[in-house]
């Protein structure tokens, strides 16, 4: 998602609760997820999966809230959860932060109780509930810092971020800090380079070269887990020729999917934000166009974020059916999961589908049943 997600939620959790970590299940059937043909193998079973996104779960400070979400995901049959593995700040804060870019100071990675230990809890709770996580390392957007936080600090730009030596050294240091914490966990579905990387107006080789280098670096740190890009899936031609099928944002879906250390592809779908009038028709075409590329490159792809502000079941339901029936598409993850925590309802950006709602019954319970 490209619009601000910093809302009431960011302010709601400023104190770190100190409850006892839960015991891990040590389930003997748990294994590291892997590619299996054009699908994934999750804990010994190969098939299509349903999942969702929660950017905020690693910023919660109450362990019971994390466990509540994980138990609801498990009960619903949602197998994969995508979370923000970054939380970059540019000022000192008493809240949760993972990495700081404060003018005049050396960037810091926070491994303390209000830092990566919050993400540790998400990983341990995911292990206990047999939920798999996609963890990404930087945001293209300014929410929770992202590339703009690096750029303000280093004097770089949206374009030079991908090639600047100091930026890339700090980005890799951050990746190493996160990956080495969880490299032996069966709860990691995949490491993800960024949320929605774009390089507007750039030659597509800039992002492709950066993704080649970064994925090789991650592979050198952790040869056991899958790696993916986290892009929106903008294509170099095809489809109806409209904006998402162009390289205006410096992205070439097929070229990036062919990178050796990229295990699978990702794509997102927000037709309204992209100026597409026929959300349903455009979306079905977008899903099929990606499936065709993924099948031709012989790597599975994940329909990783999608959403509508209104008419969710009438639009997202048929998209799910299309994804389920398209070769090359191995799973879908709607944006975004909602629940009621100790502090109240989680952030509502109009795309949220709350656990227990009628939209949830249709787009989660019904969908999971169709997957079988
Ligand atoms: C995980 O990373 C640490 C630190 O880089 C390393 O010492 C360890 O061998 C790695 N473990 C696995 C299972 O790859
Ligand atoms: C989707 O595929 C399944 C199995 O291949 C088939 O039974 C079903 O009719 C298809 N649904 C649609 C809407 O094409």
TrEMBL record:
User: What keyword terms does UniProt attach to this protein?
Assistant: Glycosidase, Hydrolase, Secreted, Signal
Which compartments is it annotated to reside in? Answer: Secreted
InterPro entries from the UniProt entry: GH (IPR017853), Glyco_hydro_5 (IPR001547), MAN-like (IPR045053)
One GO biological-process annotation of the entry reads: mannan catabolic process
Q: What is its main location?
A: secreted
Its GO CC terms are: extracellular region
Pfam families (alphabetical): GH5_mannosidase
PANTHER family in the cross-refs = MANNAN ENDO-1,4-BETA-MANNOSIDASE 1, PTHR31451
The Swiss-Prot or TrEMBL record describes its family as follows:
Belongs to the glycosyl hydrolase 5 (cellulase A) family.
This chain belongs to the protein called: mannan endo-1,4-beta-mannosidase
């Amino acid at each position: 998602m490209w619009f601000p997600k910093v809302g009431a939620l960011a302010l709601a959790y400023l104190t770190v609760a100190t409850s006892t970590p839960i015991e891990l299940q040590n389930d003997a059937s748990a294994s590291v997820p892997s590619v299996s043909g054009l699908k994934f193998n999750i804990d010994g079973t190969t098939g299509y999966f349903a999942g969702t996104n929660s950017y905020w779960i690693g910023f919660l400070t109450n362990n019971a809230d994390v466990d509540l979400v994980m138990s609801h995901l498990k009960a619903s049959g949602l197998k994969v959860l995508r979370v923000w593995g970054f939380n970059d700040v540019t000022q000192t804060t008493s809240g949760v932060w993972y990495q700081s870019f404060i003018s005049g100071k050396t960037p810091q990675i926070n491994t303390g109780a209000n830092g990566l230990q919050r993400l540790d809890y998400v990983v341990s709770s995911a292990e206990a509930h047999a939920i798999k996580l996609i963890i990404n390392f930087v945001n293209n957007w300014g929410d929770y810092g992202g590339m703009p936080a690096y750029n303000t600090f280093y004097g770089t730009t949206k374009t030079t971020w991908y090639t600047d030596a100091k930026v890339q050294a700090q980005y890799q240091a951050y990746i190493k800090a996160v990956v080495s914490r969880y490299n032996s966990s069966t709860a990691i579905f995949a490491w993800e380079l960024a949320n929605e990387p774009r390089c507007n107006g750039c030659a597509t080789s800039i992002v492709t070269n950066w993704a080649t280098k970064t994925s090789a670096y991650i592979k050198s740190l952790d040869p056991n887990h899958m790696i993916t890009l986290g892009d929106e899936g903008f294509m170099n031609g095809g489809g109806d020729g409209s904006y998402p099928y162009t390289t205006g944002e410096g992205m070439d879906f097929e070229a990036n999917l062919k990178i050796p250390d990229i295990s699978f592809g990702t794509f997102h779908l927000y037709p309204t934000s992209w100026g597409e009038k026929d959300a349903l028709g455009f979306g079905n075409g977008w899903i099929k166009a990606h499936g065709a590329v993924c099948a031709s490159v012989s790597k599975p792809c994940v329909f990783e974020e999608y959403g509508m502000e209104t008419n969710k079941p009438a639009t997202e339901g048929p998209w799910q059916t299309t994804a389920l029936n398209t070769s090359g598409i191995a799973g879908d993850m709607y944006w975004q999961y909602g629940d009621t925590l100790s502090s109240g309802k989680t952030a509502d950006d109009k795309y949220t589908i709350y656990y227990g709602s009628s939209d949830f019954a249709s787009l989660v319970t019904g969908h999971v049943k169709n997957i079988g």
